Amino acid sequence: MQIYIGNFEYQNSFQSIFKKNISCLTFPVFFKLLCKLYLIKFKSKVMLPINQYQEQFLAYLQSQKKDKEPKNLYEPIDYILQLGGKRMRPILTLMSTEVFDADYKKALPAALAVEVFHNFSLVHDDIMDDAPLRRGKITVHEKWNINTGILSGDAMLILAYQNFEKYQPKIFRKLAKLFSKTALEVCEGQQYDVDFETREDVTIPEYLKMIEYKTAVLVAAAMKMGAIIAETSKDNAKLIYNFGLNLGLAFQLQDDYLDAFGDPETFGKQVGGDIIENKKTYLYLKAIEFSSEEQKAQLMHFFSIQPEDNLDKINSVKEIFNATGASEATQKAIQGFTLKAFKTLKKMKISEDKKAILKAFGENLMDRKV
């Protein structure tokens, strides 16, 4: 029998629990203890539907909005935070807190820290990429100017840290340590991404390391923050981090795939954007690996030009992705990292229903169209 009390799992039979003094227990006392144990087992917190975590987070985000001066520093911050997005990372923080039987409300400041940091990275990424749009709206540096984008982004990083001040010192230290490590890795991932733009010898392991740092570590950290706030075991915290890391890798590879093969009506951004920008994604690297000399020459040619009309380029590159088996290999990699994430669930000391919720979340990510 397995009994869950808070974050601790006890695996004992009733006989072993009472073996030293069962003879001195009266039946009413024994029955009372028996009922108490069963009640404890079913004390596991019922989790909310994902859309409700999103609603609660958005309400908290709105409640933290304040009119502050100077406006040219804070208005761009409010602007980027209100642009929408999936809010996947803060939702994962709230979910993982309740996975380990703590109230998700305790995790709202940490969830906000994750979301503010994520959007800070987007503001600076958009400046580096000279991107005109973000989520279909004008980017911060285009709406204001580059200097404002840099400064507001810097302020967002500090504001993200300030959210951890709402926790007790023990929890604060753990959250801040994880956050600092993650923030630096995200910067390292961004630098790798920039470096790859001018390199012709990028390998699959290097690319996977880049997307791990640039994307996956923040997903993993978002989930581990929930574990820290719930004060679960070190093993559980490590496992939920690994779960998030592999889901993050699958998520980014799916993003690579959808960028080329997604439905324009549901994808939410221009299909073929990575091809237009000559980005060496997993699809591209696998195509180079599997291609004939002729296909390789064609692919490298397409990734060296910037035609005025990109439609022919996009279609030709996609044909090579399919013909070489790169598209199929990418889909297998997505499935592989997702299944690797699921394996960690078996080791996690949580109830089976919560394992099922996390698995369903991962399956939805793997099957997403946007």
How would you portray this structure in words?
With 370 residues, this protein is mainly alpha-helical. It folds into three domains: 2-41, no CATH class; 45-178, Farnesyl Diphosphate Synthase (Orthogonal Bundle); 233-370, Farnesyl Diphosphate Synthase. It has 18 helices and four strands. The strands form two sheets. The chain has a two-stranded antiparallel ribbon with strand order 1-2. α5 crosses α10 and α6 (108-129) runs antiparallel to α10. The longest helix has 28 residues, at 169-196. It is globular. The two termini are 42 Å apart. The model is unreliable at 1-25 and 27-43 (pLDDT under 50).
Gyration radius, in Å: 24 Å
Order of helices and strands: EEHHHHHHEEHHHHHHHHHHHH
Distance between the ends:
42 Å
Instruction: Give the strand order of the largest sheet, numbering strands 1, 2, ... along the chain.
Output: 1-2
**Mean of all residue-level pLDDT scores:** 87
**Low-pLDDT segments, ≥5 res:** 1-25, 27-43
> What share of residues is helical?
over 70%
CATH superfamily of the largest domain: Farnesyl Diphosphate Synthase
CATH topology of the largest domain, by name, is Farnesyl Diphosphate Synthase
Q: Biggest sheet, open or closed, and with what strands and sense?
A: 2 strands, antiparallel
Structural class: mainly alpha
What is the C-level CATH assignment of the largest domain? Mainly Alpha
Which of globular, elongated, flat, extended, rod-shaped describes the shape?
Answer: globular
Give the CATH architecture of the largest domain.
Orthogonal Bundle
Q: Percent of residues in beta strands?
A: under 5%
Q: How many discrete structural domains?
A: 3
The helix tally amounts to 18
- Total number of strands: 4
